[in-house]
Design goal:
Length: about 150
Amino acid sequence: MTATDPALTALAHGWRVLSLLHGRIEAHMERALQALHDLSVREYSLLDVLSRQNDDEGGHLQMRQVADAVVLSQSATTRLVTRLEDRGLLERCLCPTDRRGIYTNVTEAGLELLEQARPTNDTALREALDEAAKNPELAPLVRAVETLKFPASA
């Protein structure tokens, strides 16, 4: 039997707890978004990320950047974009300066759905964090999430 490095064991435990918190939050948000808006968490995240683009120089995201922002592979992101495009929530258009580049924009219908879903997303997140805070193992992570500071545009 090999000895286990206590630091690595603690690190693995910390990762397990973080993963547990993420899973619980995402599952709660998924149920709420699906029930009220027929959106998955990934679909909501994609609409949210793309809605923050602008038409200024460098304001559109490349598919790789979008994939990184929604934590999916490029192929999974492309499939997700196609699904939302088929629902009329996104549209693709050619980049005016590089005909090989394709932008993905949120349609008016997509923006409306996003605005309707935002309070549901925020409420579900708050509920999931409040529930997780009752668990002594998860409570420190909840406090850490609650104290993170980001610029208003993030």
